[in-house]
Specification:
- With about 70 residues, the protein is α+β, with helices and mostly antiparallel strands.
- It has one domain: Macrophage Migration Inhibitory Factor (2-Layer Sandwich).
- The chain is about 40% helix and about 20% strand.
- It contains 2 helices and 4 strands, in the order βαβββα.
- The protein is elongated and about 45 Å long.
- The relative contact order is 0.19.
C-alpha cells in the first residue's frame, strides 16, 4: 500500500482536502496503482518550529510583512 507523507505549516481544511485529492490522483496516475490503495498523512507544525538560514519561518514571514510584500523577494 503506497504511503505519502507531507510536513508543512498550518493549512486550512480546504487546503488539506485538495492536497489529499490531488496527491492521490497524481501518484495513482504516475504509478498506475489504483487511488484506493494510497494513504496520505499531512503533519502540520507551527511556523516557529521550522527554520531556514538561522531564522524561524514565523520570523521570516513577519519580516516580509514589515517590508510590505507579504512574500519573499
Amino acid at each position: 500500500m503506497p504511503y505519502i507523507s507531507m510536513e508543512c505549516g498550518t493549512l486550512t481544511d480546504k487546503q488539506k482536502s485538495r492536497l489529499i485529492k490531488e496527491l492521490t490522483e497524481t501518484a495513482a496516475g504516475i504509478t498506475h496503482i489504483p487511488a484506493e490503495f494510497f494513504s496520505i498523512t499531512i503533519k502540520e507544525l507551527p511556523d516557529r518550529n521550522f527554520g531556514i538560514g538561522g531564522r524561524s519561518i514565523d520570523r521570516i514571514k513577519a519580516e516580509y510583512a514589515v517590508k510590505g510584500t507579504g512574500k519573499p523577494e
